[in-house]
Every structure is written in C-alpha cells, then in structure tokens.
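Complex record, two chains
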Amino acid sequence: MAYKKWRCLICDFVYDEAAGLPGEGIAAGTRWEDIPDTWTCPDCGAAKSDFQMVEA
Amino acid sequence: MTTTTIPAPSAPWVDGKRYLWLLSPMIPVLVLIALGVYQATGWTFFAWGGPILLYGLIPLLDWMIGEDPINAPESAVAQLENDLFYRGIVYAYIPTQFAATIWGAYLVVTMDVSLLDYIGLIFTVGTVNGIGINTSHELGHKRGEAERWLAKLTLAPVAYGHFFVEHNRGHHKNVATPDDPASSKMGETFWAFLPRTMIGSLRSAWGIEKERLARTGDSLWSLKNENLQSWGMTVVMFGALTLWLGWAALPFLLLQAFYGASLLEAVNYLEHYGLLRQKGADGRYERCKPEHSWNSNHIITNLFLYQLQRHSDHHANPARRFQALRHFDESPQLPSGYAALILITYFPWLWFRQMDPAVVRHYKGDLTRANLYPPKREELLQRWQGAKLDDGKPALFPGEHATHVAAKAGSGRYQCTDCGYIYDEKQGCPREGYPAGTPWAKLPQTWPCPDCAVREKPDFIPVG
C-alpha cells in the first residue's frame, strides 16, 4: 500500500508516512494509524484529529 | 509565590477567577467611558485614558497585587473549555471595540480637538484595537468557522489582518528561532525589531497564503485569500468611516491602527526575547517547550489580557482556551506583568539592563545556546559568556548582577548562588555523607545544596 501524507489543518505541517519523524522517535514508514493518539503536531500542537489526509 | 495545583476534587472545581475575567472585555468599555467624559468635558486627561490605563494604572495594580496562585487542575480543563460563559467573555470585546473606534473617529472630526488631545485619542483608541489583536489571537486559535471569522473581524480596526494567517502557520511554527520575524533576539532593540517583525510577518503571511492557494488551485487574488479577507474588512470599515466623516478621519484611523499594532509587537518582543529552540540531528528545530517563552504570572495584567502571559502553556497547547492555561514555576519568568514591561522595551538601555542578565541566567552562562542578534553577537559573547549570575527571580532594575569571582587557588570553598551556603572542603558536609576533607570534585554533579536544595553543584561558584 502506498505511503500517504497527512496535513495539519492548523499550521500546514505535513506528516509523510514514508519519512516518519525520526527526531521524535517515529520511524520512517510509520503509518498514521500507528502514531499514538496523544501525539500532537510538532509545529503547532494540534491534535491528530486536526489532520487531513492529502489526496494524491 | 508558589502555585498550588488543587488535587482532583470530588465536587466540581470552582474557578476563583471566573467573574474577574470580565476585566478583559472591560478595556473597550473603559475607553468608551473615557471618550464619553472627554466629549462632555474636553478634559485632556480622558483623551489620554488609554495610555494612562495601560502604562500607569495596570502596572501599579500589578505591583500592588502581585501573582496568581491559581492553576486549574487537569481534571477541570474539559469543564472549563466547554463552559460558554468564557466564550462570551471573548466575544464581548468586539462590539465595544468597534464602538470605541467609530466614536473616537467621530470625536476627532467633529470636536475642536487640540493637537495634544488628538495624539491622546490616537493612543487611546489604538490601545483598544491593539489589545483587540489579543482577542483575535484567542479566537484564531480555535477550529470552528464562526470563531475564525470573528478573529478576522476583530483585526479590521487595527488593519492587521495578516496576523490571522501568520500567527498560527508562521509564528507558532518558527517561534524562538532566528527564522521567526516575531521572535526577538538578545541584543536587538525594540526599535530594530519593530520594522523586522512588521515587514517580515507581512511577507510571511503573504507567502503562506500564496503557497496554500497554489495548492488548492485558487487565485492568489481571490476572496479565498485569508489575508485579503481580513484586510478587506479594514478597507470596508475605514472606507465607510471616511465616507461618513470625511477625509480627516482617515489619518486618525491609520495612526491609531499603527500604534495598536506596535503594542502587539512590543508584546511579541518580550515574549521570546533571546530564547532559542535547538536544532536536532535531523535539521529540524526541537519542539517548542516551556523554556522557550517568557511568562508572567502577575494577575492584573493577566486578567486584562485573557491570560496571554501564561505563554509557555499557550505554545505547548495552542488550542487551549485562555481560562485553562497554567502557570509553570520552572518556565522563564518576567519580573513584572507585560503592561509595565512594554514601557521598558521602548528604552533599550533599560531593557537590556533588566533582561540580558535574565537570558544569561536562563542559559547558565552559555550564550551560544541563545538567540543572538548577529551584529551584537561578538560583543554579547565577550561580555557574558561563562558569567555566573546570582539566581532567583530577576527584580526590576537590580543593577549589575554578574559576579565574576576569581577563585583563590586551592581555596576549596564553593558557594550556593541561591542561598549563600558554603561548602568548605576542610569541613566537608558530614550530614550529607561527605566527611571533612572530601574534595569538591568528589561530589556528584547532581548534588543539591544541603541548605536550600534549590541549586545543584554546577551552580555553585568558587569563593575565596
């Protein structure tokens, strides 16, 4: 299944599943569903529920 | 004053500040009263009501009343956030803000206003609209469409519509890094910062929308551009007032808007001065943490500013509503409320004297970790690098704090920079398990001062 991207609706930060966020301990290739629900946007603190999947 | 977090109650937690929050939307009401008295009497004192309140009365009350001991427990946050009373507290600012702007413009055009009074009115009305940006700030951080529209509306009288775009998507992203036009650098005067932040924030906001609209396929010049939406509201408002009152209204409106915006920028200046997020191995800046914002827990200014001064919690939880923001003892604290400090930002010598030692203290003498103003970098490092300062909260105008102590060779005595306790190698500290003669080097880095426990071994300084 192709890797997806998710955009923060508050600040436009994009989480790329392929790249992950190694600096935060989220390995490359980590799927959105596998990121803990308590995780917040690293740029603005928005919750996961404030993200939208980017349509290819 | 320490802050107590009340343990999870069996009965619902009661907010001791609930009705005090009425002070925040009181600002435009107080100005309306001042305008009313001015219209009736022509007394210059009331034309200058805004600055008298902001630079005089509020700092005085801050100094008299001091800090806020109340933090809402986490268990009460949901209840606080859902309580519509607090939404009303924010919305209430807007109608009176508009009334004050319209009435102010009406007065300057229709009354025979002296130059002194005209200038006073610019500041007075500008104060309402500058603080209105704080109202916009509270609204703009929320997700609902209605509140976001109100956030743009409340920026109309201060002609700062791009703040809506730049604040969430620019400032919060880049805060406390050299990339953020709204984060001030150590050594940068307010007067150098002001053009940098005004121009830089404008450019950033324009670029953010340009990128977003390119992605959505909309025209940069369409009404989908959120900068244009809010600026458009300013044009409509100022245009309507000019049509009604004549050209004389326009310079007044523009000048009061500029002053109001400068108040916001003065607050920006003091909120992150010199603080810096570190870059990680992956090239990204670390997350914004409590240590990346200056805070103030002085209650009076907090009550007038929707608790904006609890800034660390705001950056950690940007969507949290003002009533639920918490004070953290361990986050960097300003010596006073914003109102007093804004005046000081205007006088760089005073500001540096007050705050540079605070930045040095925060970084424990290692200024390479601070956000430095490049033209002054060498000078700052020369002056401060490695300095050991007295610890504890900075007092207003403490004078020189740096105590560069040259230790006498082999004195073997080290002093706690908080309480003054001296560890003397000859005596050791038997009650801590270090018999007489124990060398300083043998004590662990994590050893806390046996008298006050506030400071640890690295904070001790050698004394003669």
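Note: Chain A touches chain B through 15 residues (CB under 8 Å).
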